[in-house]
Amino acid sequence: MHDATSPRPQLRLAIAPGVASSNLAALLALQRAEEPEVFMEFNEVTTSDLITGLYKRRFDVGLSLKQVSDSSLKSLSLWFEATALATPLGYPLLRQQSIRIDELKEHSVFRWKAEYSPSLDQYLSSMSSTERPNVQHVSSFEMLLLWVAAGYGVGISSRSRIETASQCGICTRPIADGPYEVITHLQRLSGQTNLVADRFELRALRVAEARKA
């Protein structure tokens, strides 16, 4: 319990675009339930600002979709979300129960540029120019939905995100090859002494394990 005579404990959390999900909601709810005395400072930042903020100790913990290879940072992979295809209603590809990436070469494919999927990016870059679909990056998931629902092409995003938007006039199809995943990473300074952040990290791992079950 928090001693009223001492400063209130806090956790300065930085959240990069694309991280928001039911998993993050579960983690924050668990944090509030188990340590209600901890003041949570939320910072919505770009991935680069998140990393800079950790270095400069403006943030205690960061959550992002981008893996960082740096010995001065501790990075843990938390939850893995499969990507799927979003298509307009009545789209010809809906005749198929699942769709391969190489079957999209005649279609415009919209992707939210903040939603990193290293395995998908690597596969797309390995394809020849004649096989590669016409990928167009958009600034938000909402813009991806707009273009797909209007019939201008298909979209690739995390399956859970697409399914929550099913009322927007789109359908979901699994991607046959892969898997192509969106991975949420927890990042902290290596060797950092912060008991509140330590406990938050353990809760994040508990949520990740529960989602695997």
CATH topology of the largest domain: D-Maltodextrin-Binding Protein, domain 2
Please tally the β strands and state the result: 9
Strand content: 25-35%
Instruction: Average the pLDDT over all residues and give the rounded result.
Output: 92
Most strands sheet: 9 strands, mixed
Task: Characterize the overall form.
Answer: elongated
Protein name: LysR family transcriptional regulator
Keywords: DNA-binding, Transcription, Transcription regulation
Pfam families: LysR_substrate (PF03466)
Family: Belongs to the LysR transcriptional regulatory family.
Can you tell me about this structure?
This protein has 213 residues and is an alpha/beta fold. The chain folds into two domains: 10-79 and 183-212, 3-Layer(aba) Sandwich (D-Maltodextrin-Binding Protein, domain 2); 80-181, D-Maltodextrin-Binding Protein, domain 2 (3-Layer(aba) Sandwich), CATH 3.40.190.10. It contains six helices and nine strands; from the N terminus they run βαβαβββαβαβαββα. The protein has helices spanning 22-34, 47-55, 118-126, 141-149, 159-164, 195-212; strands at residues 10-15, 39-44, 61-64, 73-88, 108-112, 134-138, 154-158, 170-174, 181-189. Strands 1, 2, 3, 4, 5, 6, 7, 8 and 9 form a nine-stranded mixed sheet that branches. α1 packs across α6. The protein is elongated, with a radius of gyration of 19 Å. The model has no long low-confidence stretch (mean pLDDT 92).
